[in-house]
Structure to design on (487 residues):
């Protein structure tokens, strides 16, 4: 079971709680996690990754296990702690504004 | 008695203000889509309960929202009641993908003069059809026009606009390269007018298949050829439904008028204290009565002398009178953005505008006197009004 945390506004949009649990078959990577997330909550399509290019939106970051994974290639395996469900994969909105 | 419903988009959510026909007491809704930028909310003329909203965010991109009950509840258009229990909306209603049939036109001019690919950023303006609640147009940044014929579930670009031969010369203004104005001719649904900052104004006479620039007579000293076919920073266009060939324009500088559906323009700035501004609108029952709000520029973008004044011309331009009763006449340094003025159609025409200071002002007497119907909203991006039975 993969645990995923998404920002407050996206939780409201998807009508979900603080944490989402996903079953993923095969390699657990940022791409496979986001594919599974969008398949289950299609209204999130385009909000984390561009609709067409699938590039991460510029003001969002991907964190796990106290590491910034935002710039890793999307098929990079996520840490074992994320795969085991001990740690969440976090989609975080960049801090900005006043 | 008729009612007025004012739809306000702000930097941090949408608000719906309602009043009876007297327009003295207003109810202000709780924020809708709190925390999101709401660039525009507009109701369908064919079904006033059908509202469309552009919800956008630098973080999360574009969301289109729709209400079928006058703004009480909202949903993404592909998440309507036709969904089976447990089925999720597909996210298609948020998908604005440029039509690649417009190739080889895939770039426009960037700030540094180089060519830059078109990149969708947000929806600035939603214009529902005059007679079909399920048909709606979207003006977007980077400048293009999209159309939905199924209540916003899916969007298709009308590529003839971006495919116009001048496209590679279009360039963004300071606010981005946005298509912010869409006017549908009430007498001819095949004819529409749009405006882009800073490419200029365009017109279609065939329902959006082909477009022509309508900028003859505009003069912009901030471009190399001040009378060029395109490149003018048009801020807003307005028309009166009884005379759709007469257009009024607030340009970056200059208030302009056309009497031939945009084929040519002449300046009607007249005695305005400054001819810079963003909004312009026309009285609902008097086609020669026009409203603007002069703003000091080029970089200040607040009212001259700290006085918030609406200017009214009853002569179709050139002769303007300052309307100040009820508006702050000292220490006022707010801006009024291009989408933030509207008029209702009640017997005594109501005029509304919103400010970056979060006030929405209303006049129930054609501009003679004003009241702040709400004072402390987030910065106002857009104001629309519906006249309800």
């Amino acid at each position: 079971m993969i645990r995923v945390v998404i920002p407050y506004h996206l939780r409201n949009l998807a009508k979900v709680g603080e944490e989402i649990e996903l079953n993923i078959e095969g390699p657990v990577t940022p791409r496979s996690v986001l594919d599974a997330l969008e398949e289950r909550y299609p209204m999130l399509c385009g909000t984390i990754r561009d609709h067409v290019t699938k590039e991460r939106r510029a003001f969002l970051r991907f964190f796990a296990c106290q590491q910034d994974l935002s710039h890793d290639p999307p098929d990079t395996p996520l840490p074992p702690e994320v795969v085991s469900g001990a740690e969440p994969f976090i989609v975080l909105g960049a801090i900005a504004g006043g | 008695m008729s009612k007025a419903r004012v739809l306000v988009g702000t930097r941090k959510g949408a608000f719906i203000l309602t009043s009876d026909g007297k327009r003295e007491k207003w109810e202000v809704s709780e924020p809708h889509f709190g925390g999101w930028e709401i660039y525009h909310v507009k109701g369908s003329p064919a079904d006033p309960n059908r509202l469309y909203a552009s919800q956008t965010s630098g973080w999360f991109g574009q969301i289109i929202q729709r209400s079928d009950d006058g703004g009480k509840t909202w949903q993404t258009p592909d998440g309507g009641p036709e969904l089976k229990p447990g089925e999720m909306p597909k996210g298609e209603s948020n998908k604005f993908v440029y039509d690649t049939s417009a190739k080889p036109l895939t770039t426009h001019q960037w700030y540094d003069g180089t060519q830059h690919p078109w990149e969708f950023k947000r929806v600035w303006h939603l214009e529902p059809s005059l007679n079909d609640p399920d048909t709606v147009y979207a003006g977007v940044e980077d400048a293009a026009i999209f159309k939905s014929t199924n209540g916003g579930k899916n969007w298709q670009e009308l590529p003839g606009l971006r495919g116009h031969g001048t496209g590679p010369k279009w360039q963004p203004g300071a606010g981005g390269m946005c298509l912010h104005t869409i006017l549908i001719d009430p007498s001819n649904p095949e004819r529409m007018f749009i405006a882009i900052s800073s490419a200029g104004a365009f017109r279609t006479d065939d329902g959006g298949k082909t477009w022509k620039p309508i900028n003859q007579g505009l003069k912009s000293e901030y471009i190399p050829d001040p009378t060029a076919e395109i490149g003018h920073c048009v801020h807003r266009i307005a028309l009166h439904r009884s005379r759709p060939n007469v257009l009024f324009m607030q340009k970056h500088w200059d208030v302009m008028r056309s009497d031939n559906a945009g084929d040519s323009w002449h300046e009607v700035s007249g005695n305005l204290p400054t001819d810079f501004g963003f909004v312009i609108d026309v009285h609902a029952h008097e086609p020669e009565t026009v409203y603007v709000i002069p703003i000091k520029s080029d970089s200040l973008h607040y009212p001259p002398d700290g006085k918030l004044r609406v200017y009214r011309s009853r002569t179709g331009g050139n002769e303007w009178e300052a309307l100040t009763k009820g508006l702050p006449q000292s220490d006022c340094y707010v801006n009024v953005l291009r989408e933030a003025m509207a008029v209702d159609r009640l017997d005594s025409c109501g005029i509304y505008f919103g400010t970056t200071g979060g006030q929405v002002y209303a006049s129930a007497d054609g501009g003679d006197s004003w009241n702040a119907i709400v004072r402390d909203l987030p910065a106002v991006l857009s104001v629309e009004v519906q006249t309800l039975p």
In short: Chain B has a mean pLDDT of 94. Residues 175 and 197 of chain B are 8 Å apart (CA to CA).
